[in-house]
Amino acid sequence: MPITKLCNQQPLTKLSVCKPFYSINRTQLSSKLPNQQMHATTLLAVEETLREQGAEITPTAYFATLMSLLDQQKDDPEVEEMRAAILNLLAIVFPNVPVSVLRSQYTATLSVITTILALQPPPTAPSLRSLITCLEHLLIAQDSAAWAHTTTLKALQTLLILSLDSRPKPRKRAQEAVRNIVTHPPLMMIIHPGMKVVVQTTLQVLKESGNGVVGAAGSKDKDSATQMILHTLQLVRMVAKAWPVEQFLPLCDILLHLPKLNNAYLTSSAFQVFESLLSTSESPEAPKVVHQGETEAQTPVESIDQVVSRLEKITQVMSAVLELKPNANDATLMPLWLDVVRAGFVESARLQGLLRAAGQGAQVPQEAVVPIVQLFKVIFPNLDSSNPVSVHNSTVDCLKQLISHCITDDMIDIAVQDMKKNRGLQSDKKKRSVIETISATIKGGFDIRFQSSWLGILDILKGLFERLNHAANPLLVSFLPIIDELRFTPAFTQKAHLDVVLSAAISTVGPRIFLDTLPLNIDNPEERKRGRAWLLPLLKSSVTNTELEYFASTLIPLADRLNQKAQGCTENGMMKKVYETLIGQVWSLISGFCDLPVDMEMAFTKELAERFSNVLYSVPDLRPVICQALTSLVVRNQAIVASSESDAVLERKYLMSKEEAANNITLLQQYARPYLMVFFNIFQATLPQFRGYLLEVMRMYLSISTPKDLQDTFQAVLVQLNTALTTVQPPVQQGDAPPASHNLMDLADIMVPYVDGPNMANLYQVVASLFANDADAALQKKAYKIVNSMAETETGRVVLKSNLEELMRNILDTTAAATATAKRTRLSLIGQVISLLEPTDLYFVPSILSEVVVATKEVNEKTRDVAYALLVAMGNKMKAGGVISTERVGDMEGAPSETQATIGEYFTMVTAGLAGTTPHMVSAAITSLSRLLFEFHKDLEPAMVSEMIGTMHLFVNSSNREIVKSALGFIKVTTVSLEVGIVREHLQQIVSGMIRWSHEHKGHFKVKVRHILERLVRRFGYDDIVVYVPEADKKLLVNIKKRRERAKRNKKNGSSGMDMEGDEEEAEGDNKKSTKPLYMQTTFGSAYEDALYGSESDLSDDDDDEEEGGNEGKAPAKKSNKKKQGADAWIKEDGDTPLDFLDRTVVSRVTASHPSTQAARKIKDLSSAFKTSSDGKLVIDESNSDNEDAEEEEVDQETMELDQAENNYLESLKSVDGFTRGQGGRIKFNKTNKRGVLGKDDDTEMEMAGGPGPIRSKGVKEQRPTKILGQEFKAKKAGGDVKKKGRVDPYAYVPLTSLRKGAKEGLSLTNKSKADKRKQGKPGRRS
Q1: Are 139 and 94 a contacting pair, CB within 8 Å?
Q2: Distance CA 82, CA 93 (A)
Q3: Sign of the dihedral defined by the CA atoms of residues 209, 211, 214, 217, in that order
Q4: 3-state secondary structure of 526
Q5: Among positive and negative, which fits the CA dihedral 61, 64, 66, 69?
Q6: What is the rounded CA–CA span in Å between residue 346 and residue 362?
Q7: To 10 degrees, what angle do helices 389-406 and 454-468 make?
Q8: Of 731, 829, 842, 1219, which residue is the least packed, with the fewest Cβ within 10 Å?
Q9: Extended strands (E) in 481-598
Q10: In this predicted model, what pLDDT tens digit does every residue of 329-354 receive, in sequence order?
Q11: Run of H or E including 562
């Protein structure tokens, strides 16, 4: 069939099967725009042609068909719309076509594209963009041989011409295409062969346009030439990363000439091109283009000669750029110039670093080593307060980058050496280094004329501290008094910025020099010195990689002196609290001093170690800090030892080598055992919820202990454990410390990964005997936990394997003694045993199976998860094969025999649980079968699967709800996971079995049945399911069908109210497992959980029975597809009366259904109670006959009764006679209701039963009727006033005297009563 004919006849009924066209199908199939409709129709025609030809639908097939169609219509001017649609589809498919196809069809494809580009009139902008995309990917796919032909270069020239087009969108797309082409050279080529054409074209255009701007006769020609230069500069900026080094100078000469044209736009664009040429970062707009069948090749590394050549070019360019410095007040050009300077000198520093790293530092041109001091002198004055803020920001950013990249390590070393040499010399004889000159320049920035830039200068100073690192001492110590003085200046409010710089100074110069320069002065308040207690928090967060000896010799004595002062403050409690706070802050610094100390071998003495131990014992509040510090000593040194960096780099960064770090760990090994004893003692005295820091530090020192110390320590713990287990423990009250046996069990668990084989065996013998101890559930749980920890180590698995038979027997014998607390850890241990089983020991599986099956019904969710995982693990073990000896299985009847382990045999074992004597056991067996069937359904024989499904039919008809609930879950898993053919055989049993539970609301049975029916309808279709549904229950299936159709309509119309997939996608999705990433899945069985619980109905569940009866004529209500997090509730209000929430009767106003919905339902019910004639009129029967036909009365009796009961209850509470009972049973009548809720009538009297007559209620005054001015003119059926015959107009003037005379009669001037005035807060006469 011809494609053009098919395009006019074929309706849009099917979806494309090619992923590149997915967006077209979803957005354009139902589009009302002619061009989009043409795109979709053309695509459908192409797919239909491919199907008729029997070709596989692939990108290559699309490419061949579309190119053939385009070739037929390439020069026909009457099919522009068809050609545009084909080009749009080709632009989508070209990136997915294999490279080999594009290369083999290169000549023919290029001929078609160039023919269309040469048409007159030219293609439209959308078609042109599609052509550019096709040509781009066609050229990218070609190899170096193709680029040697002139046709390829001419195609690139065509793109260059389009990149200068006056139309913005085609021009931008062409520029992007040129960039993508030249930045993806053929294999093993650095410079793209087409870059020569790009350079020649752009340079020629720039020269001619520049001359055109200078010699333009009129403004129109000048503007045209300027626009051409701007377009060309934009192209150069995009291809700057691929610009050849040898063409650097010609381009820079042109760019340097552009600022002389006195055009701000040209100057700005020129600086932007400079920045792109000199910048090293890749543009985020330049994506990697890799075609199908092509691997991304590594670009060859530049050679030394190329690096030297590029460095020379950059040096020449930057020397010229420095001469083009704009005015500092120019907020447009100065930031751009600074960006160029920053990018150029950073790139120059990078290239110099490459040469020095390669040992070619001698090849660095002398002109490239531009003194950074010179740059600082040129750039720093821009921070003058008179300059714009944008200039300040760009200057700060430029100087920070120069400091970070252009200050070399050699400069820092020379500065340190010069400072040492200059000590003791006179100032005129001192030789200033580069760093000292820069420091002097920054110090000058704290002058008053730079005040508005102080924050930026502080940022520059922070960058200088970080770059110098440890060399900041002594180079930058002179800045500390300046910052301190500024910190105490009241006029300077940006204290946070100063603190950031001080933190950088602390971490680089070190706390010794810092505190010697700026002392704390907190222990001598009588002296008139500045107290700097505010430095303590900064020190805590900044001290690192410094001298530990300073803390031991200076700060610990400071803390002792503060402690003495605190003890002496017996009368002044406030000062004592202050001193205690300062003591805690001083000791909190220990974690920073222990973070990779540089003098650990000398500073960490026996005295300091003992002091830490004493503090751990005596000051509980400081235990976390000390433990964290001792942990850092081990962790940081281990990180240095394991580092991949060289010793030279480590010494420059951390002043430490790997050998020194290893020596530090050896030193800590000497104190490991004493510290462990201290930790163990503190561990037993600490409540379990506060032991986190102790666990971490104990594991760390166990890891560095020597084997002898470790085994001695463990044996001591084991001896104490045996003693504690044999000693009778008194009962522990809630909140008290755990008994010694519990603490020692925890310690043993911590030490398990570090214990050798013999000690591990001794520990196993001790804890295995605790499995039967059901008197202490916590101790039993810890015993299982220790054995689990053993199974996670290689040594422990060897010990368990040698005692495997005894362990299995112990587990089987202690089944009855297992407590609920220890259930999860026991199941985990069983799983470890299963993994250790030999093929001849599989008798353990049927022996323990019943316990695992029952555990799937545990209340604890984690226990259930472990039980499910264990079921699967046992199934995999049985699937692997082996022998089951029935003689060794406990309680096994019959003659001894051996059975081969198979997955079918395993299912037979689990199926035996269906004969359980309790519903709980039967339900657990069904649940276990559901999980196993989902996991192993592909490994089972179809006959066994069919037999299980037939058996479940019996349990679905059970009268026990627990069993039925599990059976419905099994059916749902069956529906989701099994093949369609297997389920179809039992379709009648499945549908007929569950349909009887569709009327049961308890336990969500109705919802579960509906979900399963929806799944069945999705897989088998409505017609196959409805034949098995009884006539009385078909309304549920009809409702499902209608809601599915409604959801599809909403989805087709773009509505997101209901998430319902098409039939084709649903059929595919039923057999798919969860595609969520691992971090979003549950700990086990996420696919099973999705199948059982997650694959619920995609339709709304809150439909009413009325809707199930079929109300096609009504518009479907919009319902949210979000799940309700809780029950909704409404509060009924009566008019404008405020609701008193303190009233006891407010509960009666809370309702679970929306009041407006109830009112609407009542109105609907009343309207449906009348007959209608043939012409639609209501027929009202006024007779009071009670013999009306029930079929004519369509009122929901159950709803009416519930509403009437609710109304009666509310009436009893809100009526005049309503009352509530208070304390002692006293009756309190509803006064509020009588005046507020029911106060529309004026009757305020109530009649007491047995009383003499009406009694006036207290507190109720008789109000006089108030005359409202103009009330007689008020309209009855409209808002506003009306004119009446024979009377004055409503807006006529009335004498005030007559109003005053009528004041006693209650006439109001404002139409408001006194009570209303009081409510509005207006003062009365006595106010």
Answers
A1: no
A2: 17
A3: negative
A4: coil
A5: negative
A6: 20
A7: 10
A8: 731
A9: none
A10: 988 889 989 988 998 888 888 888 88
A11: helix 556-568
Give start and end residues of each alpha helix (H) in 19-124: 22-28, 34-53, 59-72, 80-93, 99-104, 106-117
Phi and psi at 203, nearest 5°, equal -65, -40
| Cα distance between residue 931 and residue 966, in whole Å | 11
Following DSSP, what letter does each residue of 134-154 receive, concatenated? HHHHHHHT--HHHHTSHHHHH
Number of C-alpha atoms within 13 angstroms, CB side, residue 644? 0
The pair of structure tokens assigned to 856 is: 């799937």
Question: Tokens 């760390």 appear where?
Answer: 700
- For residue 1274, the cross-strand partners are 1281
Q: What is the DSSP letter of 1082?
A: -
Residues 6+ apart with CB under 8 A from 665: 634, 637, 638, 641, 704
Query: What is the SS3 assignment for 784-829?
Result: HHHHHHHHCCHHHHHHHHHCHHHHHHHHHHCCCCCCCCCHHHHHHH
Q: Which amino acid is at 242?
A: A
Give the span between the Cα atoms of 694 and 682, in whole angstroms: 8
Residue with tokens 């032991």: 691
pLDDT, tens digit, 9 for 90 and up, residues 1147-1178:
556 665 555 544 444 444 444 455 555 555 55
Q: H or E stretch including 1131?
A: strand 1130-1131
**E-state strands within 542-633:** none
DSSP secondary structure code for residue 837 in this structure: -
In angstroms, rounded to a whole number, what is the distance separating the alpha carbons of residues 805 and 898?
A: 18
Token readout for 11 is 């309706």
H or E stretch covering 454: helix 454-468
Distance of CA 720 to the CA centre of its chain: 48
Please provide the distance, in angstroms rounded to a whole number, between the alpha carbons at the two ends of the chain: 98
Residues of the chain falling short of pLDDT 50:
1-17, 22-23, 25-26, 282-299, 1055-1085, 1095-1127, 1157-1168, 1182-1199, 1201-1202, 1232-1262, 1297-1312, 1317, 1322-1327
**Residue 343 burial by CB count (10 A; 0-12/13-18/19+): exposed, middle or buried?**
buried
Angle (nearest 5°) at CA 872 between 866 and 873 = 85
Q: Strand, coil or helix: what is 163?
A: coil
What does each C-alpha distance from 1004 to 412, 1013, 1095 come to in angstroms? 76, 14, 15
Residues in the chain: 1327
CA distance linking residue 374 with residue 457, whole number of Å: 18
Question: Quick one: which of 601, 474, 578 has its CA closest to 531?
Answer: 578
Q: How far apart are CA 935 and CA 903, in angstroms?
A: 11
- Predicted confidence (pLDDT) per residue in 370-404, tens digit: 678 888 889 999 999 899 999 999 999 999 999 99
Token pair for 944: 């066994």
C-alpha–C-alpha distance, residues 387 and 683, integer Å: 64
Determine the Cα–Cα distance for residues 849 and 932; give it in Å rounded to an integer.
13
pLDDT in tens, 42-77: 888 888 888 888 888 888 988 998 898 888 877 776
φ, ψ (nearest 5 deg) of residue 619: -120, 95
Alpha helices in 837-882 (DSSP H): 844-855, 861-880
Run of H or E including 1221 = strand 1219-1221
Residue 1282, both tokens: 């009306």
Helix (H, G, I), strand (E, B) or coil at 535: helix
From CA 247, how far away is CA 199, in angstroms rounded? 8
Rg value, the chain, Cα: 44
Q: How crowded is residue 638: how many other Cβ atoms within 10 Å of its Cβ?
A: 17
Other Cβ atoms less than 10 A from the Cβ of 558: the count is 17
Buried b (16+ CB within 10 A) or exposed e, 1108-1133: beeeeeeebeeeeeeeeeeeeeeeee
Backbone angles phi, psi at 1259, to 5 degrees: 80, 5
* Tokens, residue 308: 């030297």
